[in-house]
Amino acid sequence: MAPLAIPAIITAAAILGVFRILGLHRSLAGLVLAHVVLTLPHLLSTLSATRNLFDLRLDDAAASCVGAPAITFRRITLSLIAPAVVSGLLFAKVISFDEPIVSLFLSSPAVRSLTAQMWSNMRATPIPGSRRSRPCCSWSRSARAGTMASPGVAPAASQASEGTP
Question: What's the rounded Cα separation, in Å, for the pair 78 and 83?
Answer without folding.
Answer: 9
